[in-house]
Amino acid sequence: MDERTGRYLNVVDVEATCWPTRAEAGGQPNEIIEIGLCVVDLEARERTAKHRVLVRPARSAVSAFCTDLTGLTQDEVDGGVPFAEACAILEREHRSHTRAWASWGDYDRKQFEAQCARAGVRYPFGRRHTNAKATYSQARGLPKRLGMAGALQHAGLPLEGRHHCGADDAWNIGALVLDVVRRGAWPERA
User: Where does the UniProt annotation place the signal sequence (predicted)?
Assistant: First the structure.
């Protein structure tokens, strides 16, 4: 197996600017401030790399609520790269346009689609996306889809790192993907 047959999978988790309520956002859009990425070797059945890209928001600020949730501060993300450069990094360094990818639910995919459209930036991913949350729930025969932390507990896996840290969450989702792979229930990609 190689890139085209789906040996490697990019697991992506994003953190975005957020507020307790839309009213407190004051018209600011949610913008990606961290992209966490875990590379999973589906053939070797192991997580092979963990990456983090900090993204400088252009039209919103990091709220105290967001810092409490993600641990990210405005000063920290101000040192990040612009969104367009983050997308270019995904393509250049992580082959995101040709490699299959997964996220826990559809939030990450939809956030990228919306932000790319707003910013006039090329969408950095190909069409081979898997909703790992739905796939895990189906593989385990669950009537309700679990959040990532709940799924880790359900699978008997530890939560490694900090929840709502994109890089750590991508790493943990990678472990859940491998749980599904070991059960023979991960979808094949041509």
Answer: none
